[in-house]
## 1
Amino acid sequence: MKRTLFLLLLAFAFVGVVNAQEVYYKCIANNVSVRKAPSVKSPRVQFTGAYGSSGPVALDKDEIVRGTGKVQSGFTQVDYVGTYNLWYSGWVSTQYLKRIYKCKVCKGKGFFDEICPNCDGMGVHACCDYTGKKRCDNCYGIGYK
């Protein structure tokens, strides 16, 4: 009995680990605020730009963000790459996010394993986002669609 219970608990733990994989979203509107907390009254996250410039972070339509797994009061916490490839974290109203799924062509890798024929990995033709690998045209290289 104890062994059966142990195996059952182990199976449920494994299912939890499998379901804990990263979830990505696509923004479905323009100028969507990214907030510091899950509330419309919360201040917006600020970006830091060149020469000390800064301003409020907003997502544009079709921008991709990674979910952290936290959802509260109609908001989803997300991480994303913004200005100057800096990572930002904040809360976005869930109504403006659409879940996207792992690309079946590249199986979520985003880039095929072959070297990009158009550049040497330096992004000369912006085809491979500095990886030197050929971009998956099915998902535009992000691995999710």
## 2
Amino acid sequence: MTPRQRFIASLEGKPLTGRVPHFELVFYLTMEAFGRVHPDHRNYSQWVQMTDSEKRLHIRDMAEIFVMTAKRFEHSAILLHSALNGQEDEFRLIDEVRRQSGDEYCIMIHGDATCGIPSGGDMSEFCGRLADNPQKAKDEIRKRVDEYLARSEKLKKQGAIDGFCLCSDYCFNTGPFFSPEWFDEFITPHLIELVQGYRRQGFYVIKHTDGNIMSIMDRLVQAGPHALHSLDPQGGVDIAEVKKQIGDRITLIGNVNCGLLDTGTDAECIESARYALKYGMPGGRYIFSTSNCIYTGMRLERYELILDIWRKEGNYPE
């Protein structure tokens, strides 16, 4: 089986032999790993002035970085990140990644139309709009969902991607930003509509949110994504408990503690990786991953350390 086939099998809850699939939401250490700037870290201010030939070269270079990362670190899926503006250029990047990688990897892009936690400077205005005119706010969210589903319909015709990662964050380490009442009013119905719309179009869906999700976990599962990411241990999310509650209904991705990869000891990092594998693997439906991403400033050797544990201990019987 190819990495893509193994990733999809895990999303569909099919039994696997051999190594547990691996995926990271984003790998930002491309300068350290390859001596090349990550597509998210580039200045696109002059993009509109570039000739079509220059744009093609940039897109080819970005695609190479995504594919090189997947090959070197044995990812089963690629989530495309870039600061490109415009649907046409986004579609060109998708096509180029697929051209370079064939059907080796599951290709995914961002696709969340729901409301996440607003930035600190916007919180008061955001909450005021929802409180003062809830129907207008819901109409705006509904319109955004419709726009995202129209975009995905075009992507379905293009045929180059496999699915979407929904990356609006709902939770702090202490719990959700929204009260249960507001979550059910402004998030739950739109999340269900979006996820089910993608699924009807034939796409796979991963729902990401950091923080303590335990009080809204049933709502996330109700929406029907194929997988839940990131199972944040810094937010008090214990993969053993999550596996017990929902592990037979949805694929789990993550739980290796990013904070420890940054500030912990080697032994603590190893223990976190082992814990995620120990409790995520039984019965399948688990994809090995950190609890967020491989972000700027993390030491590459720390990521490689947990990959060594995954290679040695993250294997189902043949």
## 3
Amino acid sequence: MRLYPAIDMIDGKCVRLVQGDYRKKTTFSEDPLAVALRWQEEGGDLIHLVDLDGAKSGDMPNFDIVCRIASELQIPIEIGGGIRDMHAVEKYLEHGVERVILGTAAIKNPDFVKEAVKEYGKRIVVGIDAKDGMVAISGWEEVSKVSALSLAKQMEQLGVATLIYTDIATDGMLKGPNFTAMQEMAEYVALDVVASGGVSSLKDLERLSKTGVEGAIIGKALYTGHIKLPEAVSLCQDMK
């Protein structure tokens, strides 16, 4: 199971939210690049970046910071938040980003996802954020009437290879992932499913590895010290 240390950005700073609530924000660092370099040094497989400003606005306000991180790191990075047209996809991929994550676009504009996958293949990842099994969009501020499972199946049919599945109820709570939902998703589609939300301990990672997910995103637990990344990396290597 791969480990994806997360860096969420607002106003160019590294932050964490609780259950996607922008009003419940904690700033952990003024320098996302320094944080990314640390996670690289400690053994992260891939840095998971989220532009929370972009997720709400639909543009790329933290683009320059993302590019700087991509140029400085030796490991790949992926970015999500506000990527809603081919111009944004191309701009990121041309500036050193390995993978881009399409979220709101997946439900509002599946033809765009199809076009992006046709052009860039496995470099296109879809992020499905769910609340009570239903897809949330626009920076989690709107819950749709589409189920996470049905959207995942649609994305599979469009040729998407990797899916990041976030359970909003557990995100930032440090109370453990929604293991049932993660296993259900991993079994429902023939995609690489990356689990996101609630990872708070090495035991959580052990249990997640048994659900069939390909990887796990670790966010708040790294910043609070609940998980030491080198220990998590060692654990996942032992589980191979």
## 4
Amino acid sequence: MVNDNADKLVRDNFWELPLEQLTRTEWEQLCDGCARCCLKKLQDDNTPADATKQTAPAIRFTRVVCRYLNQSRCSCKAYQDRQIKVPDCLVLDMENLPQSLYWIPDTCAYKLRYLGKPLPQWHPLLTGSRSAMEELGIPVTGRVLSEQYVHDDGLEEHVIRWVKA
């Protein structure tokens, strides 16, 4: 974030601005709260047949979520300490967003705005509530299982197709 000094400022239609111009508060509010980023992912690290091609590893999403996800609210129970409790939890910012695009869900506001696309019509910033996104099944609520109940070797059994990167 470039504009951290104006931390409490939330401008009208801030989501239409380039991401670099958002305040910390605006950046946080851009998130729709779907929790799709909290889904455990499987990554195919096999080198492509043509090593000269710069292709991102294939990602498969599972219905397994982080143990700290409050599944009914799609919010992190350890948000402030998430990187301490889960060291590989990514705190998304403008520095790491470009190299993370290959795994970020295709409905994500950060990904869409980075690519110069508008927010989806169901986004809470446009509709004023979560109702439209819930009707479309965007949040993970009711379709996921905590990692506490799944062995790492069993993740493949929980691959889903309703989330794409």
